[in-house]
Amino acid sequence: MPGEKSGGATVFVIFGGGGDLAWRKLIPALYDLFVDGRLPSRFKILGTGRSQLTDDSYRRRLQEGVDQYSAFGKTDEKKWQAFSSKVYFLQTDLGDSRSFAALSRELTAYDESLSEKAVRIFYLAVPPDMFQPIAVGLSGEKLNRDRSHARIVIEKPFGHDLESARKLDRLLGEHFLESQIYRIDHYLGKETVQNILAFRFGNTLFEPIWNRRYIDHVQITVAESDGIGHRSGYYEGAGALRDILQNHLLQILCLIAMEAPISFGSDEVRQKKVDVLRAIRPISLDQVGQNAVRGQYGSGWTRGERVGPYRSEPGVAPDSATETFAAAKFFVDNWRWQDVPFYLRTGKRLPARISEVCIHFRSVPHQAFPGAALADSRPNRLVMAIQPEEGILLRFEVKHPGPSMALAPVMMQFYYREAFRTRSPEAYETLLLDVVRGDSTLFMRSDQTETAWAVIAPILDMWQSVRPTDFPNYHAGSWGPEAADIFIARDGRSWTLPTFLQCREDLATCRVAREPLEQPGSGPEAGG
After folding, report:
1. pLDDT tens column, 450-506
2. Which residues are catalytic?
3. Environment class of residue 486 by beta-carbon count within 10 Å: exposed (0-12), middle (13-18) or buried (19+)?
């Protein structure tokens, strides 16, 4: 709730403080927490980077980002002055030990001014190749030694594959305890993602039917209407499988499939999620084709505008084999979920920006109604919408008004914005506040990240060893390649069109190109 301040004195050290993440996400989130009265009353924000910025020029740049991305809109001048007076910039060279010595002096001086030791949060908003010099530099100045006050926050990607994830964990483990490491996945900070646990374990109504006896299958979709923007340097080496499916989608799967924890202590909840990942049925290399589909967008229409193919994006190779769409099917081999398929999909340049979980229940075991009454009948469905709309919908059957018996599906709807009439905090607000509090429940443990990489390792290996011959294979503005529809149709199922009205509105404003997709080496747009 607003006004509930968290923790004692705290200093945020943002490595990469002049970068895009700090500008768009971190500083706006900290400002919003400040306006809401949730930050500790004594705090300091210290951005670091190679740029030659004064404190005032740094603050002016950050204000531009807050004006655009704060939940409160354009900054209130008095509130911004109060907030920015605690924001500073320290020029650093991560390869120079003197920079870390200067940082140590700054932190010591801050503690002395408070007459107490502040919690030190080291946020690594930098590329992964910078993790090692930062960890070594902090360790060299003994800034990692205080287990209760020193915390390090790592942005994804947590490695590039299983081996690199293990290497990263070994590196961090040499300098920090696991209890000090916060691996941040912003999806876990979203209200509806957290509400999955409240919905399941806070109600007696649904948990008894949350199993293979009543649930036919589960679909989890994270769709994005945008392309890659200026992220080609990262995305070309990642692709949809690494960027979204390996972390965001598998994390949501864990929340849907996990057993009830004994308590909501951080290790208890995280252990239940690891148990799910370890129970996922391994996919052998020769089974990848039956359990995963990849795609890359070609030209098409998005929100009424003509857009080019992925291979024409700035910085993308003209013959790129990077997937912009990934779908996979997983089974969780345990008593609760045996043989219930979990279908996961994500993609760029799809018709709408929307994320949701759809629980498809089994049909009733016996229909006593005449066939004519069942013309519009549908199995029950539960939808948990994560973005852009946040809410939960339940589809069930009722009698259609009239003299004859006819069943029709209706929706019972819950929307956060209508039920609580208050804004939902942004994901980074929630997660930053948890770091301040020392609550690691929503952060991934090392064994969790490594097990998630192990789950998708066969898919990665197969896709890297066998070059796709059909890219691009879906139009921008469509729901992905035809192969993805065939993939799920083989099981007698189909992808669910996202339910919330926002998606329908987006669909009404876009049209999918009907001309044939350009194949490699053909057409005026081939090769970008």
Report:
1. 999 999 999 999 999 999 999 999 999 999 999 999 999 999 999 988 876 444 443
2. 248
3. exposed
